Amino acid sequence: MKELRLANKIIKTLIKDRIQYSGRLLADTLTVFGRCGVLLLLYYYVFNLKGGVINGTTFQIAAWSIFFYFSFMTLGLRNISRLIMSDVQSGNVEVLFNKPISYLLYRCYWQIGSGFYSFFVVTILGGAALALTIGIPQTMTSAIFLPTLLIIFLGAAVLSLLIYSLVGLFSFWIQDVNPLFWIVDKFVMILGGSYLPVALFPDFLYKLSIYSPFGASQFMTHTVYENWALSYPLLIGIQFSWILILGLMTYLMFKKVRQKVSVNGG
Fold this sequence. Notes:
Number of strands: 2
Order of helices and strands: HHEEHHHHHHHHHH
Distance between the termini: 32 Å
Oligomer: single chain
Structural class: mainly alpha
C-alpha cells in the first residue's frame, strides 16, 4: 500500500511538472505532427494512385493505425533504458537502490509520469484532427473497440517497459547500451507498424510482427483493422504471454544486478 501511494505521488508530481513546464509537450507535439503528418500525406497520395485501396486496406484505416503508433510513442517508455544506463554511469543507482520502492518500479513510474501529459494532449489533438479531416473508421465504432483498445494499450505499456528495462539492465555489464537500444528500437519500429502499416506487410513479416515481443508491444496499430473482432483474443493472449516471459526474464536479470551492485558503495 505504501508503495502504491509513493508511485501515485511520483506520477502526479511529474505530470504537474510537465504541465507547468511545457517545453517537452511542444517538442513531442511538433514531432508527432511533423513525422506523422508528412507520412500520412505521402500515404494519401499513394493510396489515391492505387485507387484508394491497397491490399484490402483503405487510407482511412492505415492513417489511424500509423497515428496510434506515434501517439503511443509520445509516452516515452523506450527512454527507460537510457535512464537506467545514466543511473549506472553516474553511480546514482546506488542511491536509488536504497529507496523504499523497487528500483525498476521506481523508474517505470517515473517514465510513465514523465510522458503521460504529452501523450494525453497529443492523442486528443491528433485524434481530433484526424477525425475532422478523414473521419472515423467504422471499425472504431464497434462495441468491442474501446474495451479491447484499453486492454491492448495497458499490455503494450507493460511490455514496452519490460523490453526496454531489459535493455537498460545490460548497462550493468556493458556500460553503454545505445547500440543494443538502437537494434531493439528498430525492430519495434518496423514490426510495430510505424512507417508501414501492418496490413501492408508481406506474409512472413506480418507473422513476425504478431508473434514477436517487438510487434506485440505495438498491438494498438491492429485495433482499427476489419479483422480485429476476430483476432483480438489471440493478440491479447500473445501479448499476455510475452509479458509473463519477459517479466520473468526481467526479474531474474534484476536479481543478478542486485547481487552485482554494492548498495553501500563497498
